[in-house]
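Might I ask for a little of your time on a matter of protein folding? The record follows directly beneath this note:
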Amino acid sequence: MSPSSSPSYLCIIVSFIIVIVTSGKKKDGEAKPGSAASHHLPIETHHSLHHPFDVSMPYWKYGGSTVATESFIRLTPNAQSRQGWLFNEFELQSNDWEIELHFEVKSDYHIGGDGFGIFILNDTFHPRRNKGHNYLAGSIFGLTERFQGFGVIFDTYDNDGNRDNPTVYAVKQERTKMQQWNHDNDMADNMVKIPATKDADYQCTNNYRNVDNHRVILRYINNDLHVYLKSINGENYEYCFSVNIGINSKKYYIALAAMTGQVADKHDLFLLSTRYLDASDSQKIDDSRMKR
């Protein structure tokens, strides 16, 4: 019997082929933000917004300068001193979830502002507890400074002159730990800075202004918040930051808000998708490998 036809030789060849095929499949199925491999549960429609929008907004309450059309939701126009907000009236049924938002922050001015935020709030400011068209508005990028919960802030205007805006970071406030908000230093005293893992970042600079259909993904799992932004030069997502929030967000609510000041951008939303995560999703994305 020749060496090429011996059983042991054939086993080696077959094993080698299996290793190559298996390795290829693992690489193709690698979990990345926004990929099918990063989650497995369906989109929760009552927590989501998709084109064409239902202008009656059956699952949402909005106020201030917010306007709903079939094509987009505009939190603020590019006009001075405007505040607009949007509140999802259905509570989250899981502490672990993912939100994907498609948005645009634009104007023809060289300098824009002020910014916007995606918030997770307790029921203190649920519409059933509050009356008035603009009860939720305030100075925290369009949201009341008395909010309870946490949020991801897109801080466009450079108040402190450090030339590091637009900046993306997280803020947090609880009933027993109310903040003294400091806009003058771009919320440096108010940011959540507890890393989700060793050496994790707590903010990033991202030039999202005047970009068409920009995108962000928030993943909240095991009380840690992970934020990823679409690359300016491609369709893939890049790591922004990951911090420990330490709030059980089950029975909290999704809200968005935006604000303009003396400088102004329009803040438009084109898609918001929410899905729940579970324990099997917790280790699927490796932030350390994505860090720039």
Observations:
- The longest strand covers residues 266-276.
